Amino acid sequence: MQTAKSRRKVAPASAENGDSGDKLDQILLSAAVANGEDLGPFIRKAFASGKPETLVHHLRHFSRSKESEIEDVCKAHYQDFILAVDDLRSLLSDVDSLKSSLSNSNSQLQSVAGPLLTSLDSFIEAKNKCQNINLAINSSKICVELMELCSRANVHIKEQNFYMALKCLEMIESEYFSETPSSTMRRMLETKIPAIRSHIERLINKEFGDWLVDIRLVSRNLGQMAIGQASASRQREEEMRMKQRQAEEQSRLSSRDCIYALEEEDDEGFAEIGEEFDLTPLYRAYHIHQTLGLEDRFKQYYFENRKLQLTSDFQVSSMTPFLESHQTFFAQIAGFFIVEDRVLRTGGQLISKMEVESLWDTAVSKMCSVLEDQFSRMQTANHLLLIKDYVSLLGVTLRGYGYPVAQLLDVLSKHRDKYHELLLSDCRKQISEVLQADRFENMYMRKEYEYSMNVLSFQIQTSDIMPAFPYVAPFSSTVPDCCRIVRSFIEDSVSFMSYGGQLDFYDVVKKYLDRLLSDVLDGALLKLISTSIHGVNQAMIVAANMSVLERACDFFFRHAAQLSGIPLRMAERSRRKFPLNKARDAAEEMLSGLLKKKVDGFMTLIENVNWLADEPPQLENEYVNEVSIFLETLLSTAQQILPSQVLRRVLQDVLSHISELIIGALYGETVKRFTLNAIMGLDIDIKSLETFAENQASLLPEADTNQLKNALAGARQMVNLLLSNHPENFLNPVIRERSYNALDYRKVVTISEKLREPSERLFGTFGSRNYKQNPKKKSLDSLIKRLKDVN
């Protein structure tokens, strides 16, 4: 206590001896310590000023000031402490008594619990044994179940039920592997499970490899079957269109007696394509690889192998002609993509649409390349058509499975011109052979089927009434033979253009049909006419053939329109002039020329005419009789062969030639002078010829009969002018246009000067000095003078 008091006395003494600065620092430090603030700034300041002793002094002063406070507190609680100690001493005696009581209780407990503990130890030992036994039983059960799973997996592998075997392996790994008590068995599983999976993978890959080999043969048969069904479907469509055309033709000819019937589709033999091939091995392999966690690797393996197969399918054998191998080639590719379409639709994600499109693009590119190469080598139209038809069937088949085939069809369209050129060349050879074999005789038909085959099938009949048989046709065998060639050309052309992606192809068919008729057939007929026709009968047959071919050409264009699927009215609007007009004109010119040569032989008798006759003749001159007999004989034969229009044109040409010969005789140097009596004889001759023309009214229309008479207009007008009382009327433009339009004024002058009057006989001027000139002669002289002035 004294020490504390002396300390409290020293502190104020030291505070009084410090200066005011130290007091301030002491106050601030005391406040900071009392408030629990950071003393770091005070420490740094003390060391910075080099007076740490001052800081220590201040802290000690603060400590001494607090000691006095502590002493005050202790004084306040001293009595309480004494009381507590007394209580503790009394508690100690109680504790000792409790301790002795507890010791007694423990001794009693030990004596009682000893046997119980011995029993408890026995119980625990028995429980541990039981647990060990249960553990052994459970381990045995696990091992038994594991062995059963292993045995089941082996059975599945033996039965090639690989999926169930893999599921067993998965169950072993997931449920039994970690719980297997046997380390030996665990090591065995660790070794065998991967080996079994590898074994299953090898087996399923072998099975898949066998399927890849088998599917190639299956694909070929599949492609042939699919293309065959497309061909059968096309055939049914063609038959249906043919029946429709027949119905339209019947309705066009007659709207009565129409028979309607329902036709049943015969679908037998057209099984579902998908039933013809089995994808089970593929899907099984895919499923197994999915189970093995090798899905992506199998997808890649499948795609690469199928791509290699497709590449091998593209190989075209150089030892076998493409015409013989093209069906197998295209059927293999068609079957390949039918299989891929099924895999794409039913195989999950085994192959993607993009991969199938990639394979198809490769196939289309290769097929186009092969077609380009093979088409460039072909020189036979039929071969090209066969391949085109099969390619178009391929396109129809694969279009049904969603594959784009426009590029293939473009290749076919690109070779359209070459095909038609080859077809025209073939037709040119056939037509040439047909024309060379023609004997220029009327075709003889004994039976109705011959008439139907050679006449009705080309619609070249002139009457719908069936003729009596045997029937002599007004044409030679050239006509139906050429018609067959042209019809075959049309059908082949339509067949090539059909199913080629172009719907409206009639204009193309018509263009090449025009070429066939106007270039090939017309040219061949022209060659025949110019080199092989040597008689009138031959010329008649050819001219008759041309008339029949003109009707046949109408049938050709209608047939092309029907096969092309356009209305006949549209074909009629696009009709052009007769494409064989050059050959027709040449045939008629040849016939007319031969007849003119015959007539020229008879017309030489005109030299026997008495041009200076004193009396007008009563009958025709000899040359007219011969010509008339020839024309009557010609007519009796020609009317059985030639159509009326051709007969009219030929007779008109012959009569016009006769008229020119008569005028030529008057105009020529042979006749120096002639009398009116001789002209009167010519008038009788011309009337006889005009009568012949008029007599044809029963065979020809009235207009044609008038045209026949007009063929003699030159001779008739010349005779009328010479016999006219006013020949100077020739100078009147109106009268000349009406009555003398066929005369050449130069010939009129020359012939008029040859006309001799009776008064101009030898020595006639000496006996008739006072003879008054004939007014007709005067008019004629005036006409001659005026015409000479004009000339």
UniProtKB/TrEMBL annotation:
Feature: compositional bias, Basic residues: 1-10
Keyword Transcription: no
Annotated keywords: Cytoplasm, Exocytosis, Transport
InterPro entries in the record: EXOC6/Sec15, EXOC6/Sec15_C, EXOC6/Sec15_C_dom1, EXOC6_Sec15_N, EXOC6PINT-1/Sec15/Tip20_C_dom2
Keyword Cytoplasm recorded: yes
Predominant cellular place of this UniProt entry's protein: cytoplasm
Region (Disordered): 1-20, 228-250
Origin: domain of life: Eukaryota
Any one Gene Ontology cellular component term annotated for this protein: exocyst
Any one GO BP annotation for this protein: Golgi to plasma membrane transport
Family: Belongs to the SEC15 family.
Summary of the function given for this chain in its UniProt record: Component of the exocyst complex involved in the docking of exocytic vesicles with fusion sites on the plasma membrane during regulated or polarized secretion. Involved in polarized cell growth and organ morphogenesis. During cytokinesis, involved in cell plate initiation, cell plate maturation and formation of new primary cell wall.
Protein name listed in UniProt: Exocyst complex component
Source taxonomy: Eukaryota, Viridiplantae, Streptophyta, Embryophyta, Tracheophyta
